[in-house]
Design a protein that fits this description.
single chain; alpha/beta; Helix Hairpins; Chitinase A, domain 3; two-stranded parallel ribbon
């Protein structure tokens, strides 16, 4: 099995625990009930509801195993100061006239549309270790994006 370490925030670890409990106690029971109902309909070989429930069961069980694995190897990121961008830092950057807030997180918590960027991404790697006033240039398909680090808030 993979021995990768998963970097997460304390909030991210709590979210994983909530999802694990929901999948283990609620979703698992709902799917089992669906399987029982589908079995009562007779011939299982042509029973779409049964096949669908079994597929959902397999996906749910796989996710439960993955969540347990992540949680077993999770390293909770301790937020650094406001001097240098590190894992868990929240910071403001300026791109031309537009400002954007990012948080540097582990890959399991990444959500670029919400400003949560992975430390493993090209953008995350470029910001890591930078401080307010530094400029970061990132090559994108349309050219070069320049970000100026305005402030590290956490």
């Amino acid at each position: 099995m993979n021995q990768e370490v998963y970097y997460v925030t304390a909030e991210g670890l709590e979210g994983l625990a909530v999802e694990l409990e929901e999948r283990s106690k609620v979703t698992r029971k709902q799917i089992a009930d669906d399987i029982g109902t589908a079995k009562d309909q007779g011939d299982l070989s042509e029973n779409f509801e049964y096949q669908d429930a079994k597929e959902r069961q397999a996906k749910n069980e796989a996710r439960i195993i993955h969540l347990r694995d992540i949680m077993a190897r999770a390293v909770v990121m301790q937020k650094g100061g406001t001097d240098v961008i590190s894992m868990g830092s929240t910071f403001i950057v300026k791109m031309g006239e537009m400002e954007r807030t990012f948080m540097l997180v582990g890959a399991t918590e990444s959500d670029p549309m919400a400003g949560r960027i992975s430390h493993e991404s090209p953008l995350g790697k470029a910001f890591l270790g930078k401080k307010p006033g530094d400029s970061v240039e990132i090559e994108v398909p349309s050219g070069t994006m320049t970000y100026e680090i305005v402030k590290i808030t956490e």
